[in-house]
Every structure is written in structure tokens, then in C-alpha cells.
Design brief:
Elements lengths: L1 H14 L18 H4 L1 E8 L14 E10 L4 E10 L6 E9 L7 E3 L9 E7 L5 E10 L2 E10 L6 H13 L8 E2 L9 H5 L2
Antiparallel strand pairs: 1-2, 1-8, 1-9, 2-3, 3-4, 5-6, 6-7, 7-8
Length: 197
């Protein structure tokens, strides 16, 4: 009985902790041409991301590409191809599935990446579909997990374009101070490294 009372007290103390982290109310881009958005994106920068080996997992992914492939019923497979630790590391892969929201197709709810839930939001894509911003944020009991990705169709993105993308993210309320920046040039020694995606 005493043990149960202690556990109950700890539970209520936990609920009373001053959690204050919440996700910013960002607006995704609607009216995205998902056929043009599909294909291979090179990851130029990202917030620390557990799924990509950052933080306590040890071997952060480098040389990361994300390939969007159209499936039936407005669903899309996302195939992540990367190297573990450095450009000379072993290849690693992740696959998950999203669908395009009917109210705003710039919102991409995850449908098959347990235990990762929530959705991704396209914050920006240029008219040529050559660079873009992808965002994700979930807040559970006030504990926020947030992701931001800077994508480019080519391994190198001009500094002024990247700076403009980060300014867009900042204006939408996303903190970009902890972004990790990557040099993709030289990652892909053989055309087959990317072609097999």
C-alpha cells in the first residue's frame, strides 16, 4: 500500500513539472506538385535526428539522400540512403511511407515508421523544385522532438540559397542554431552509389 502511494505521488509530481516545450505553429506549403517533388534529394543540413544516428546513437549518418517514390492513393515511399559515420563508412538504409494530406498536400503524415509517428511538413520548395525545406515536430507531455532538413537536387547548395532557406525556417519560428551542415561533394565516388536508389 505504501509503495502504491509513493508511485502515485511520483506520478502527480511528474505531471506538475513545468514542461513548456511546444511545437511552433508553422504553415506548410500547400499545392505542392508531388510528382515533381518525388525523386532524389541530397541532405545538405539537418537538426540532430535519432533516426539518422545522431545524439546518443553514436554514428551520425553522412552522405544522406532521401528518395520519394509515388505509390497508389497519394502515398509515397521514402528511401533514405546514407553512410554511417563518414563518407568512407558502410551503407545504411531506412524506408518509411507517408501520404499526402488531402487538406494540404504539403503535410505528409507518416504511416509506416513505428515507433516514429506524426507528420512531415514541406515548409518551402522553389519553383524549379531544386531545393526545399522539410520539417517535423512532435510534443508529448511537453517534451519536444523537432526535425528540420535542407534538401537539394544536387550534392552542393550555394551558400546564399542555403542562407535564404534558413531565414525562411527562422521566420516560421524554427530554431536553426543546432543544425548540422554536411558536404555531399565527394560522397558518391561511383554513379552506381546513387543510381541504385
Amino acid at each position: 500500500m505504501e509503495k502504491h502511494a509513493c508511485l502515485l505521488l511520483l506520478f502527480f509530481l511528474f505531471l506538475s513539472l513545468p514542461f513548456s516545450e511546444s511545437c511552433p505553429n508553422v504553415e506548410p506549403v500547400c499545392g505542392v506538385d508531388m510528382k515533381r517533388f518525388s525523386g532524389i534529394w541530397f541532405e545538405i543540413a539537418r537538426k540532430p535526428c535519432y533516426m539518422e544516428g545522431d545524439k546518443f546513437l553514436g554514428h551520425p549518418y553522412s552522405c544522406v539522400t532521401h528518395q520519394y517514390t509515388e505509390l497508389p492513393n497519394d502515398h509515397y515511399e521514402v528511401f533514405i540512403n546514407a553512410k554511417k559515420g563518414s563518407s568512407s563508412g558502410e551503407f545504411v538504409h531506412e524506408i518509411y511511407e507517408v501520404h499526402s494530406d488531402t487538406n494540404c498536400n504539403g503535410t505528409l503524415p507518416v504511416v509506416s515508421k513505428w515507433p516514429f509517428q506524426g507528420s512531415y511538413q514541406i515548409l518551402y520548395v522553389d519553383e524549379a523544385y531544386s531545393h526545399s525545406l522539410l520539417y517535423s515536430c512532435n510534443s508529448v507531455l511537453g517534451v519536444k522532438t523537432e526535425g528540420l532538413w535542407v534538401f537539394s537536387r544536387s550534392p552542393v547548395l550555394a551558400d546564399d540559397i542555403k542562407a535564404n532557406l534558413l531565414a525562411i525556417a527562422t521566420a516560421k519560428g524554427v530554431d536553426v542554431a543546432d543544425l548540422n551542415h554536411f558536404v555531399q561533394d565527394g560522397c558518391w565516388r561511383k554513379s552506381s552509389d546513387v543510381a541504385f536508389l
